[in-house]
């Protein structure tokens, strides 16, 4: 009886290490293993991410498939959040800018080709009393639709100064 109980406990522990095969159809949750800080933001991510240095970004973290890049900007250089967002993404063909319901940020998606590789992006922007913030999530374009719900979960979890 003890062997059966030990075996069942082991199966339960192992099964909790992998996501459910139906998890793609459910809202994403974040299992925090590590937080990353930079550019006035604290971002909870999983253990697959590590710090990175990316030119022109104060905040950068990446895994083997996803890169997050972020910056903080002075409010004095822009009229309002719309002006700020348009100045940052005017050079890309992006989707409609969406206000996240129940949250205080806006976001949109776009694709961009670098060195003959198509990448998919989610751009998010937030306004605080003294600053504007951006966070850009990047992956291979063929994974963008698959990653959208995870990007929104991460964006919802960012703590801004």
Write a short abstract of this structure.
With 161 residues, the chain is an alpha+beta fold. The chain has three helices and ten strands, in the order H-E-E-E-E-E-H-E-E-E-E-H-E.
Task: Give a description of the structure.
The protein has 161 residues and is of the alpha+beta class. The protein is built from 3 helices and 10 strands. The chain has helices at residues 2-15, 81-89, 144-157, and strands at 34-38, 41-45, 50-51, 59-62, 67-74, 98-99, 105-114, 117-127, 131-140, 159-160. The radius of gyration is 19 Å and the shape is globular. The N and C termini lie far apart (54 Å).
Task: Name the beta content range.
Answer: 35-45%
N→C terminal distance:
54 Å
The profile of the biggest β sheet is: 7 strands, antiparallel
Rg to the nearest angstrom?
Answer: 19 Å
In percent, how helical is the residue content?
10-25%
pLDDT below 50 for ≥5 consecutive residues: which ranges? 4-27
Mean pLDDT: 85
Task: Please specify the SSE layout and strand pairing.
Elements lengths: L1 H14 L18 E5 L2 E5 L4 E2 L7 E4 L4 E8 L6 H9 L8 E2 L5 E10 L2 E11 L3 E10 L3 H14 L1 E2 L1
Antiparallel strand pairs: 1-2, 2-10, 3-4, 4-5, 5-9, 6-7, 7-8, 8-9
């Amino acid at each position: 009886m003890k062997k059966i109980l030990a075996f069942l406990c082991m199966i339960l522990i192992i099964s909790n290490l992998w996501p459910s095969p139906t998890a793609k159809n459910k809202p994403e949750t974040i299992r925090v293993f590590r937080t990353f800080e930079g550019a006035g933001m604290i971002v909870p991510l999983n253990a697959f991410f590590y710090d990175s240095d990316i030119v022109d970004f104060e905040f950068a973290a990446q895994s083997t498939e996803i890169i997050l890049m972020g910056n903080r900007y002075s409010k004095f250089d822009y009229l309002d959040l719309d002006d700020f967002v348009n100045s940052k993404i005017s050079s890309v063909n992006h989707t409609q800018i969406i206000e996240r319901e129940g949250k205080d940020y806006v976001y949109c998606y776009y694709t961009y080709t670098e060195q003959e590789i198509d990448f998919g992006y989610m751009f998010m922007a937030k306004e605080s009393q003294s600053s504007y913030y951006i966070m850009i999530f990047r992956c291979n374009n063929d994974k963008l639709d698959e990653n959208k719900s995870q990007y929104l979960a991460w964006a919802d979890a960012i703590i801004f100064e």
